[in-house]
Amino acid sequence: MTPVHDIYRILPEVIFALTGVAIMLIDASLPPSWPRRPLGWVAAIGTTIALWASLWQLSLPEGTGFFSTVETSAFTVFFHVLICGIVLVALLLSLDALPEDTHHQGEFYALIVFGAVGMCLLTGAVELLVAFIALEISSISTYILAGWRKHTGRGPEAAIKYFLLGSFATAFLLYGIALVFGATGTTQIYQIAQLAPAAQNQSLIIAALALMLVGILFKVSAAPFHVWTPDVYEGAPSPVVALLSTAPKAAAFALLLRVVYEMFPNLHYLWAPLLWIVAVLSMTVGNLAALRQQNVKRMLAYSAIAHAGYLLAAFAGIGEIGIAAAAFYIAAYAAMNVGIFAVVTLVAGYDEQLSLIDDYRGLVYRSPLLGSLLIFFLISLIGIPFTGGFFGKFYSFSAAVGGGAIWLAVIGLLNSGLAAAYYLRLVVVAAQRPLLDSSSDASADSAFAAAPRPAVGAAVIAAVFLAVAATLVLGIIPGATLDAAQSAAHTLQAPPQTTVPAVADPAPPAR
């Protein structure tokens, strides 16, 4: 077999890093009076090249590089493509959403692509310290992006809460890594999988698993580690929320899949019940809290917590079935969630003057296209057939039933019915015909007309089109994506044997 140069194993990450550096250098070279919007197109072009590089990695033989710290496989390519797609849509949406007078636009685009470096690296890391560094690269960028609207009180508040709670959760993850190193003498995932069952101190292994689960479940905003989510969603700009609510979660779920299925498969009897409980809590707490919300973004934040529970239900599946179902659900949720926040961006604008559910009253009549898109993405979040949300929930709950967690699937279905209440409330409000003699409707009309909204240019049209197309494809012809998810699951369940060097030989393998 022809050896593969290590740099090819991290080619998308290299492209993202070079794109970010190029944006920063160009931004520093331009006169202050020149517009920075073209830098967003540079970021979008770099992301498209990284997307192509991710697909090209399928032609590489499965294996690892950089002394068995990063891996290229169908699993990593699946999540690389997903993350690159999300970042591309978020960049296109930001191009038209950010006002021309926004300060430091170049840094905004650079932070997005630098964050993508960490997200992609996290999905391919097979060494825990590399995974930790990748998570920090991603987190630092998202902490700054969450507080981008510095002129509002909610922006800095969102960033501070996100940073403090995120740092606290990261400490749990790092402590778990330290414990697993103390028990096995290594931080390489494949070696840990071999050594953990025979470790003398099993209590250290169990404690490490628990601490790492806390750190990862915070990143995916699963209950009871969800308290940061509503404030961050409300305080961050909607294009940023479109990114925060999908790409970092996809990377964190990829790490969670590695930890439970690849690193600690022998502890299935421990982590499966724990994730069962977390899934039920996330679904129930998220949906009950969303029912009480009047702010659209806070409602969608609690909805995201509930969807984390639906996804975690797939972890009750046995082996490849659970992994494939979870991977497919991540892709479906990313498509419809990016889409719904694109619509929120177009309706509410950058400053979000129209943030309440009542502000969407009669949207179908004021802007038929926006109203129709809003309803489309809402019914996908409900899980109506012929949308990505339907097959996502179907595969997730089917995996739970196949794994023997029938009651978990039943609770998930009941929660899906509960979630339909607040989704349909927004649908009804948006579809209500305004009354000509109603003063409230007249004021709503004037508020909608006066609210500054992004210009609907080619970038935002492309972003919405990609989100709609992905949601429809995953709902009508999900076969190709499901096949890719199953290939990813097979790779995760059967890691290459060449990636596990002899434990007794501390020397690095021959290059």
List the helices and strands and how they pair.
Elements: H1 6-9, H2 11-29, H3 37-56, E1 63-65, E2 70-72, H4 74-97, H5 105-124, H6 128-146, H7 154-184, H8 189-195, H9 202-219, H10 229-235, H11 238-244, H12 247-263, H13 268-290, H14 296-313, H15 320-348, H16 363-366, H17 368-382, H18 388-402, H19 406-431, H20 439-450, H21 458-476, H22 479-493
Antiparallel strand pairs: 1-2
Helix pairs in contact: 2-3, 2-5, 3-4, 3-5, 4-5, 4-11, 4-12, 4-15, 4-21, 4-22, 5-6, 5-12, 6-7, 7-9, 7-10, 8-12, 9-12, 10-14, 11-15, 12-15, 13-14, 13-19, 14-15, 14-18, 14-19, 15-17, 15-18, 15-21, 15-22, 17-19, 18-19, 18-21
What does this structure look like?
It is built from 22 helices and 2 strands. A two-stranded antiparallel sheet has the order 1-2. Helix 4 (74-97) packs antiparallel against helix 11 (238-244) and helix 4 (74-97) packs antiparallel against helix 12. It has 511 residues and is an all-alpha fold. It has one domain (6-497). It has helices at residues 6-9, 11-29, 37-56, 74-97, 105-124, 128-146, 154-184, 189-195, 202-219, 229-235, 238-244, 247-263, 268-290, 296-313, 320-348, 363-366, 368-382, 388-402, 406-431, 439-450, 458-476, 479-493; strands spanning 63-65, 70-72. It starts with 5 loop residues before the first helix and ends in an 18-residue tail after the last helix. The model is unreliable at 495-511 (pLDDT under 50). A hairpin with a 4-residue loop joins strand 1 and strand 2.
